[in-house]
Amino acid sequence: MYYYRYSQNTEVSCCYKYMMFSYNIVFWLAGAAFLAIGLWAWSEKGVLSDISQVTRLHGFDPVWIVLIVGTVTFILGFAGCVGALRENICLLKFFCGVIGLIFFLELTTGVMAFVFQDQLREWVKDFFLTNIKGYREDIDLQNLIDSLQRANQCCGASGPQNWDLNVYFNCSNNNPSREKCGVPFSCCLYDPVESVVNTQCGYDVRSKTEKQWESFIYTKGCIAALEAWLPRNIYIVAGVFIVISLLQMFGIYLARTLIGDIEATKFTYH
Fold this sequence. Notes:
This protein is an all-alpha fold.
């Protein structure tokens, strides 16, 4: 049900119209930026010249997140901008519907993650182990895992032994790699005095006894580290979710109000 503001000079509110346009121009530009970054990253890896590389990846390519977010944001921003300027009800309803769907999916994901914590933990562990196998196959994946391990002071999914899954780091006798029985540099204990990162600090670490590992690398798994991180930062996570939700609801409010004004204006001319 719509509630129209009837008056003798019914017209579309310029205030709501240009607020809606301003709201969406930011998302449209952000979406274009994300798409440009994603395509640039793929061009640097040669994917654009050989698109079949997408199916040959052994792990998750983080560029997919950038491209998906960029595409959705670009389309929504474009629909909102054009819908506001052209007073196009169809585009504005499309904008409302997609934003509402995204909000519902976010809410559902949060509830499902809370209810099925054990299954989620196993899924994250399997996902991490799969990407450990493809660590050297994609530079973006490699940087993502290194950043995660260094930021959380962890190594592997459940511990450093998980790096046996990678062909470069496993301890098998027939492994010719110089990184045999080692771990990535991001597993090494960080020394703030060092101005240059020693990328070879993890070499041969796992050939030592497990008790000696603690002197050289982090021994805590990243799954446990992430589980410990969430309770410490629950207010930050909740605050970010609330801000995003309020922005989405504000966008829906602007679009619905503008739709009401446009339909009320059309009603006066019939």
